[in-house]
Amino acid sequence: MLITLIFIIGYAAIAFEHQIKINKTASALLVGTVCWTFYVLDNQEITSIQEQLSHHLSGIAEILFFLLGAMTIVELIDAHQGFKLITDQISSKKSVSLLWTIGLIAFFLSAILDNLTTSIVMVSLLRKIISNADQRKFFAGIVIIAANAGGAWSPIGDVTTTMLWIGGQISAIGIMKQLFLPSFVSLAIPLIYLSFKMKGQIIDSQVVNEDTFTETTPKERNIMFFVGLGTLLFVPIFKTITHLPPYMGMMLGLGIVWLVGEVLHSEKDEEERKPLTASYALSRIDSSSILFFLGILLAISCLESSNLLHDLAASMNENIGNQDIIVLLIGLASAIVDNVPLVAATMGMYDLSLFPTDHKIWEFLAYCAGTGGSILIIGSAAGVAVMGMEKIDFVWYLKRISLLALLGYFAGAAVYLFF
After folding, report:
1. Whose CA is closest to 405, among 359, 362, 370, 381?
2. Please, are residues 333 and 316 in contact by the beta-carbon 8 Å criterion?
3. How far is CA 392 from its chain centroid?
4. Residue ranges per domain, the chain?
């Protein structure tokens, strides 16, 4: 009872971090460590609990090292202005054409990178081509939907999908085959609706110069862009060939990108090369996000070890019964609270021996948790990032974007269940 109460209080603190003005990472770390503390104090089998904690920590570490590697590689590409290869190709100023272009780029880029990184890159792009703040806000809202939809069908596109992949609930090929169409539909429905509504207005645009990067040559940009993206794409292939955990492939990729960067700038002096090094990129990544995942996954593992999640699963199955409805509700809940703890909790609720790899429940969970977060702006990491960058109000998003995201969510879910 006490562990459950601590978790609920901590969960509420995470959900309302902006209202109470306490960073969610602090709340997550406190919840994770305090839950285990009370669990061990209330139990005589200390050795058994230590073994349980060590078992869970190995799985948590795999996720954290994977994220650390991916975030560093993306930061290195960005430091070299590698994403200019994409942004320089966009020339359309008609709203409908630009809407589809931005949406599709975000959708596919999110599958290669991740939804958080993609949303940051795409908002930076929007600032360069749309000067009107209100128009840019609307396109930023579409970026959130597109980035979350793109992340749902890729093993490296969303933290929750990555968790399911590393945990053995889904396979890389399986999730891509089964969720590509539903995820695309969840984006296409809002875009089709807006295509009729926007009527081809011309975007109020001007080129906005943002000279905040260390200048790099086209050769350096191209090399880092293709090497970086190539190593990210190679991670699922590496896992398939070697059967080693995905974080090993990501660490291999980081080592390659790091080495290429060192060779590329070996002739430059220390001051000139410092902003372009992997060690500097490591200092720029969002470390608080890594610690947030550590805290929340520790808390969830405590609930699992104390059999609370098993009891919750049994209760939901008994009272609701239909697993499709349960997963749909989890997806809707992820619009209100962070989808990481929701998915982590669900992973603990259902046993892999009963629901093996690529079982329908895991694939549907990946879709619902990934795309459901778009319904409210606080429901995903991508939404929170865009909210901060463009100063988008919660109510504004609720009025302009939420219904579109909701329509896409149910349309994609219907497509998945139909097939």
Report:
1. 370
2. no
3. 19
4. 2-418
Q: What tokens were used for 364?
A: 């549907």
Question: What average pLDDT does this structure show over 149-177?
Answer: 90
Query: Can you tell me the distance from the alpha carbon of 231 to that of 255, in angstroms, rounded to the nearest whole number?
Result: 10
296-320 burial, b if ≥16 CB within 10 A, otherwise e? bbbbbbbbbbbebbeebbeebeeee
Q: Which residues contact 299 (CB under 8 A, 6 or more apart)?
A: 7, 10, 28, 31, 32, 35, 341
Using one digit for the tens of pLDDT, what is the confidence trace for 106-151? 999 899 877 877 887 788 788 878 888 888 899 999 999 999 999 9
Q: Work out the angle between the directed axes of helices 360-372 and 402-418 (0-180°, nearest 10).
A: 170
pLDDT above 70 (res 204): no
Give the type of residue at 279: S
Contact indicator for 221, 82 with CB cutoff of 8 Å: yes
Residue 214 per-residue DSSP state: P
Cα–Cα distance measured from residue 236 to residue 246, given in angstroms and rounded to the nearest whole number: 7
Where do we find the tokens 């909790």?
345
Task: Note the pLDDT of residue 95.
Answer: 84
Instruction: List b or e across 129-145, with b for residues whose CB sees 16 or more CB atoms inside 10 angstroms.
Output: bbeeeebbbbbbbbbbb
String of DSSP letters for 230-278: HHHHHHHHHHHHH---HHHHHHHHHHHHHHHHHHHTTTS-HHHHGGGSH
Q: Give the predicted TM-score (pTM) of the model.
A: 0.75
Mean pLDDT of the chain: 85
Type of residue at 302? C
Amino acid found at 230 = G
Q: What pLDDT was estimated at residue 106?
A: 93
Count how many Cα atoms sit within 13 Å of the Cα of residue 161 in the half-sphere of its side chain. 33
What span, in angstroms and rounded, lies between the C-alpha atoms of 166 and 189?
A: 31
Give residues with Cβ within 8 angstroms of 256, minimum separation 6. Answer: 227, 231
